Amino acid sequence: MKKLWLHLILIGSVALAHAQSFEGIITWTSKSDIKLSDEQVQQMKAAKKQLEAQMNNPEFKKQMKANPALKEMMEKQLKNIDNMQGGGAINFLPEKMITKVKGKNTRSEMGTTVFIYRGDQDKTWSVDTETKTYSEIKSTPVETANSKLSVTKTTETATINGYNCTKYLMNAEGSGMPPQWIWVTKDIKDIDPALFKRSGNENLFVKEIDGIPVKIEMNTPQGKITMEMTELKRVKLPDSDFQIPAGYSKK
After folding, report:
1. In CATH, which superfamily holds the domain spanning 2-33+91-246?
2. What percent of the chain has pLDDT over 90?
3. Residue 123 has what pLDDT?
4. Stretch among 41-45, 87-91, 242-246, 247-251 having the lowest mean pLDDT
5. CB < 8 Å & 24+ apart, contacts of 192-197
6. Pairwise CA distance, residues 4 & 10, whole Å
């Protein structure tokens, strides 16, 4: 499931990095209705009980006091379990994602997690602002010898947040990824979709898509995941937004 989440984030951020002249901030809202089975709910409750018991252990408390990063990690695990809602539903994605774009670079912010894509270096980093750490994300093609990629432009159209959009279906059979529906617009003139085709990022399937993604939908066996562009502002941004902050350590 984490793979699906990261894949959606990269579609929404890396693709926008190949802007013709755009500089500014794009706001995405997301919704996920992931349903857990009764067995999975019980497993998560048991895991929470075990974590709480471990954190209340006097010796472990001493370890957490001496190692704040360990305490943050344990608290984050508890928070993830507490994200369960009534009936075993999980809000899988952050409600809002902010993507900053400048030239070929993007910065996507989701709570304490930040993804920085440097198009000038063709590198992506995941940054944790809580633990002040970062790691590089390696690009792994979805289409392999065991999967067959297909991209279909449909005749379905809609107006989404003021943009005229066309619906595309993307499917990579054998990859383990569920089909995705991407609503694409040509209304945003200062982001050049032709540059997508020269990006060399096979994960984004952008070679057959003509336009800018506005809405992304994915149905999984556990539920539906949706990301939607809700605001686009053209503002000047500092170069420091697209750099690893000083003092952060590599994982």
Report:
1. Lipoprotein localisation LolA/LolB/LppX (2.50.20.10)
2. 22
3. 86
4. 87-91
5. 192/18, 192/19, 192/20, 195/18, 195/19, 195/20, 196/15, 196/18
6. 10
Structure tokens at 150: 């297909």
What's the chain look like in SS3? CHHHHHHHHHHHHCHHHCCCCCEEEEEEEEEECEECCHHHHHHHHHHHHHHHHHHCCHHHHHHHHHCHHHHHHHHHHHHHHHCEEHHHEECCCCCEEEEEEECCEEEEEECCEEEEEECCCCEEEEEECCCCEEEEECCCCCCCCCCEEEEEEEEEEEEECCEEEEEEEEEEECCCCCCEEEEEECCCCCCCHHHHHHCCCHHHCHHHCCCEEEEEEEEECCEEEEEEEEEEEECCCCHHHHCCCCCCEEC
Picking from 99, 107, 84, the residue whose alpha carbon sits closest to that of residue 216 is: 99
Max CA pair span of the chain? 63
Question: Contact 97/30 with Cβ under 8 angstroms?
Answer: yes
Cross-strand partners of 233: 25
Instruction: Report the Cα 247 to chain-centroid distance in Å.
Output: 25
Asked if 204 and 177 count as a contact pair (C-beta separation under 8 A), the reply is: no
Q: Is pLDDT above 90 for 33?
A: no
Give this prediction's pTM: 0.66
